[in-house]
Amino acid sequence: VAYRQGSYEAENFLNLLYQGLGVTPDPHWCQWLRLDIPEPAVRPVPLQAFDRSNTVSVSLSASIAQRRLPVRVLSEVVMRLFATGLRVVLIGGAHEQRYARAIERMVGVRPGFLSLVGRTDLRQTAWVLKQSACCLGFDSGIIHLAMLAGVPTVSLFGPGRSEKWAPQGQFHRVVKAALACSPCTSFSYTPFCSDNRCMQSLSVSSITDAVADVVRLSAREIQR
Q1: Exposed, middle or buried, 223 (CB in 10 Å: 0-12/13-18/19+)?
Q2: Which of 5, 22, 27, 136 could serve as a FRET partner for 65 with CA atoms 20 to 30 Å apart?
Q3: How far, in Å, CA of 177 to CA of 103, rounded?
Q4: What is the pLDDT of residues 120-133, one digit of tens each?
């Protein structure tokens, strides 16, 4: 069975099953990819001030620094989301705490802004995602966890291949720059880049517009 570098990764693995057994694939298979998220034994923090319809979880997780936005840009994204009436929860692991603290300093203390970076395990993080209208994040596992939890996503891609790794379907958006050198990652190897232009080129408005679009779609689903 041929492995296609330009195909969604889940399709590559499903092709092993479909072609091996001669099964005709369901064209809507993305819709039944779901993970049951039980409520954690210990909730990370009370989220009374956060309503699912207007809460955006911003994941800071990334396996390499080249996949992240500069602190200044992501901080401006967060403040722009506030200006539209949305609330923001930062999520991520302990190794993202320095990045999170820099964003917190730029955004400042304000109602509707909460950082849980380094304060939740994976089960608690999944639960926080379930309380969100949207997950905004980089090319990382948390974006896939959000998709499997049934949460709409906006994923920011630079060196990685969005057609291969970005969540698929009508409730998911990808923001990336149209550069000749991007994507540059192949088979998990990302070459050194001196300026990281693919992420530096992403505009605040393109990101916030994508989030607003996804939040609107999410609100319709919540009302149903």
Answers
A1: exposed
A2: 5
A3: 23
A4: 999 889 999 998 99
